[in-house]
Amino acid sequence: MTLGAAAAGLVGALGASSALATTVSPVMVDLQTAGRGVVANISVTNTGAGPLPVEITVTALDPTPSGFQPGNGSADDLLVAPPTALIPAGQTQTFRVQWIGDPDLATSKHYYVSVNQLPVKLPEGQSAVQIVYNFQVLVSVSSPNKKPELTIKSVDAAKGEGDKPAIAVQVANGGEAHGYISQHRLKISETNAAGAEIFSKTISGAEFQQMVGYGLVATGQTRTVTVPVEGAPKGGTFSAALLDERAQ
Question: Rounded distance, CA 233 to CA 242, Å?
Answer without folding.
Answer: 19
